[in-house]
Specification:
The protein is α+β, with helices and mostly antiparallel strands and about 250 residues long. It is about 25% helix and about 25% strand.
Amino acid sequence: MQVDVWSPPPVLLTVDLVILTLREGRLCVLLVERGEDPFQGMLALPGGFLNHAGEEILDAAYRELSEETALVAGWVHLEQLATYGDAGRDPRGRVVSVAHLAIAPGLPEPVAGTDAMDAAWVPAEAVLSGEVELAFDHRRIVTDGIERARTKLESSALATAFCGEFFTIAELQQVYEAVWGTELDTRNFYRKVQAVKGFIIPAGPGRRSTGGRPARLYRAGPKTVLFPPLIRPVPFTTEEDTSGEGE
């Protein structure tokens, strides 16, 4: 009796990076212009294949991060986002991507990597709305990355990863507004932030001039989990009242 010999299907592994920062008060994501097929000339997330069979996935993510932004471990918040492996996501074959979310404050103008024609910070909303088209399934990955950031801002200290070492509460509020995409009441925000003990702590007597009265400086505190959480506001929508039509 003939016994079929099974062999594993060829599968390639890549890492992709959703790199977020604030630029002029707007949430932006780093995109590169692909310099080769497939999708040559289209915008995509920075990333690439493993260098060799022995390279760890996290090491590959940090390597790509360093190549695209010159950042190294310890300077940036980096976490694994999700794995994307739909059979048709890459025309080169079965390619599985382990996507990572990276967040850092005040990132500089990017420099294109070896396989990219250009690199730029693009407003996140332009990607979410579909105004900017991305290669592969990268719009889905960006959407998932931004939603991860939005959700974690509620219950974790992730917002401080968007700030420098020292920041004002007004600057922290700007992070929440940019990531959540909504304006917040200043007094209410101040009260809620101060209610979470250990979220942020005063940075000594330092103060920063903001054009008016000098504002107190803070730094990230020891708390990584926020309780009570800072709940994201529900977008307010209005429905046109047509009950009086025809009267």
